[in-house]
Design a protein that fits this description.
The protein is of the alpha+beta class and 484 residues long. The chain has 22 helices and 8 strands.
């Protein structure tokens, strides 16, 4: 092919490094921002905390006082004056014993938690199994999840043992060991599905009143999960009281046996640090940024002096490299400080408009006073792009006098009532929740009945829309809400 050169002109839009830094800082919440600042302080020696200079001045003032003088070089006597370096000093001469015989020594015990799988392995140690079966049981326990279920099929475990450990183990052998594990505590551990989990727990109950419950779970589990109680009652010829007692016994079983062995020391708690603090003082809303864990940053003056001194010297290559390095770090520090300031200003501007838009709600926390609000509404009021508003509202929280809420909570779609008034879908969901909470659980309301109730209140909503809102609230259909 013939090669040739050509000249083309293109117009491209690229983000500067500072813009990219602002975007990244805008997305992260307050807790991650603190970690990001610490990382920047470690990587950039030019950056320092505002408090460092204050602490340094205080230390210098203390050293200037006569009473607080602690300069080791100015001390009249030191430890070196009293012994030779080659002399072996006994330990008792260097140890201080300032404790009385009457002092009480209290050892505070440190509690080390045991995990769920360690608890199973402890029980495995006393099981009647040989060495090979012990190894297989350990492998099966390793496949049990935190809920206590064995989610993998025995054929898949058998294949893993063959490929990874070169062990030929039949499904019958694995099933025999699994039955041993299913006898461990907590009851129901090692089950492969919910039906088996409930049966393991019910079989440990030797009382006669559990016979009906075991029969329901064994032979009519599908009807039980779908709450077709009338079919179960007809097939087993049970009275209303007998059916109710059997169902109550099943519902008392633990569907997640692993969760019953919970150790608070082993749980990873998620801490929420609010990015904004909203206070209601005598009917006036005061918004502020949570700067508790965000330190003030500044550029170290010694590096600026270094740049000035280097610029006046000759054209030494090493000096040029050092000057370029320091200048790069200073520019990076300035960019980072400017990005932080721009982040704070954007956050306050966006949150202030949200508070002004939803002022009636923020005054008393009444959910029905939430107005329909989407990202575009706040973008138009602030003059910012929709993507910027999305980044601000993502993973951010606000602390109010009625609780801590994510910013996404205040955004909702709108719906028009029969009289033309526009209301938030959040208000409709609140009415749905109240209706379902107050219904007769023996005869729960269907979606058609809920739609009729909303229509009486001037909310003209179709049944499928009611079903959508109900699913968003995590509420099952009427048949699954039925109780005896």
């Amino acid at each position: 092919m013939k090669q040739k050169l050509s000249l083309q002109q293109k117009l491209l839009q690229k983000l500067s490094p500072q813009q990219i830094q602002v975007i990244k800082l805008l997305e992260i919440p307050a807790l991650q921002l603190e970690q990001r600042i610490k990382k920047e302080l470690e990587e950039n020696p030019v950056l320092e905390l505002e408090s460092d200079e204050i602490d340094g001045d205080q230390e210098m003032n203390m050293s200037d006082d006569g009473a607080g003088e602690t300069d080791i070089d100015n001390e009249e006597f030191t430890l070196d004056d009293y012994y030779d370096e080659e002399e072996d000093i006994p330990a008792y001469r260097l140890n201080a014993n300032n404790y009385s015989k009457d002092d009480k020594y209290v050892d505070i015990p440190f509690s080390v938690g045991t995990t769920f799988h360690e608890f199973l392995l402890e029980q495995l140690g006393v099981a009647d199994l040989n060495e090979d079966e012990q190894h297989l049981a350990e492998y099966i326990i390793g496949n049990i999840d935190d809920d206590g279920y064995l989610r993998r099929d025995l054929p898949a475990i058998s294949d893993d043992l063959a490929f990874n450990l070169n062990l030929e183990v039949t499904e019958e052998e694995l099933l025999k060991i699994l039955k041993v594990i299913q006898q461990f505590d907590p009851p129901g551990v090692g089950a492969r599905d919910l039906q088996e989990c409930l049966l393991i727990q019910l079989k440990r109950q030797n009382k006669r009143e559990f016979i009906t419950a075991r029969e329901i779970v064994t032979n009519y589990f599908d009807e039980f999960t779908k709450k077709h109680y009338s079919k179960i009652q007809a097939k087993l010829e049970l009275s209303d009281q007998e059916l109710k007692e059997a169902i109550d016994q099943i519902l008392k079983m633990n569907p997640k046996p692993g969760s019953s062995y919970s150790n608070p020391l082993n749980k990873a708690n998620q801490h929420i640090v609010p990015d904004f603090i909203l206070e209601n003082i005598d009917g006036e809303l005061i918004l502020s940024l949570n700067q508790r864990n965000v330190p003030e940053l500044k550029i170290n003056d010694s590096y600026l002096d270094m740049i000035r001194s280097m610029s006046g010297n000759g054209k030494n290559k090493s000096r040029k490299e050092a000057m370029a390095f320091v200048k790069e770090k200073i520019d990076s520090a300035k960019w980072f400080i400017d990005a932080l300031q721009q982040r704070q200003a954007t956050l306050m501007q966006t949150m202030s408009e949200i508070v002004n838009f939803q002022k009636a709600y923020f005054l008393d926390g009444d959910e029905t006073k939430l107005k329909p609000m989407i990202l575009k509404d706040i973008a138009e009021r602030t003059g910012l792009d929709i993507s910027t508003i999305s980044r601000v509202s993502n993973s951010k929280y606000i602390q109010t006098h009625f609780g801590i809420y994510p910013l996404k909570y205040f955004f909702s779609e709108g719906l028009q009532k029969d009289d033309g008034e526009e209301v938030s879908t959040r208000e409709i969901k609140k009415i749905l929740q109240d209706c379902i909470d107050g219904e007769d659980k023996s005869k729960p309301m269907t979606d058609d009945k809920l739609a009729a109730i909303l229509k009486k209140k001037s909310y003209n909503i179709a049944r499928r829309t009611v079903a959508k809102y109900r699913e968003q609230l995590g509420i099952p259909v009427a048949r699954l809400r039925k109780e005896l």
